[in-house]
Amino acid sequence: METGKCYYTFRGHTAEIVCLSFNLQSTLVATGSMDTTAKLWDIQTGEEVVRLTGHSAEIIALSFNTIGDRIITGSFDHTVAVWDVSTGRMHTLIGHRAEISSVQFNWDCALIVTGSMDKTCMLWNAVTGKRVATLTGHDDEVLDVCFDYTGQRIATASADGSARVYDAETKKCIAKLEGHGGEISKICFNPQGSRILTASLDKTARLWDPQTGQCIQILEGHTDEIFSCAFNYKGNIIITGSKDNTCRIWR
């Protein structure tokens, strides 16, 4: 990061790469593609390590667990696949009735959360693959999902313009985040779990209190839809990415 030098260019996919992630150990990069495959790449050598095949449609979401021995992929084929990183073996989670939009492990690797265009969010046992719960309430597609860092709460973002917070243990909705004037494309907790950040097609990002559902601050300045947002590691800086061709840093 000191020089901005490009170390490797990973080549091998035959269509657009739409999602990617480092493992927590920073030894592998995973890429998911519209060519229906995911690939694992060695960071030190730049070589392809494993090719993950099994989906019958585009892969648009993926996530490593914190241990780094499993990866999940979500596809337009309505399924989620759990892969063994070392062998490439796959276990399929079946239950959603439409395209998968988002997937994530919780911190202790016990649970998986998935969001879908079928307007639901599903919670799965990461070991057995059994569906634990279906979280409902949204009136339109669920576009993004995430755990907080304790794995005790789940946040969902929807095309209905609202976000919700669920208790992972009781499976109950504990807060509704309402106020955006367009669909919410991205949602995340800060590292401390005390704030939620949302990005919307209404050209704004918002900060929320996850306990009360109250909007704390509206981040205005972009001139077009916001598709991405994130906190830094300390949680005191925010970055947003927009269709207006700019990224903004907020403090």
Summary of the model, kept short:
With 251 residues, the chain is mainly β. It is 0% helix and 49% strand. The model has no long low-confidence stretch (mean pLDDT 97).
Main beta sheet, described?
A: 4 strands, antiparallel
**Which of globular, elongated, flat, extended, rod-shaped describes the shape?**
globular
* SSE-based structural type: mainly beta
Q: How much beta, percentage-wise?
A: over 45%
- Distance between the terminal alpha carbons, to the nearest Å? 22 Å
In sequence order, what are the helices and strands, one letter per element? EEEEEEEEEEEEEEEEEEEEEEE
Strand order of the largest sheet: 1-2-3-4
Q: Mean pLDDT across all residues, rounded? A: 97
Radius of gyration: 18 Å
Percent helix:
under 10%
Low-pLDDT stretches are none
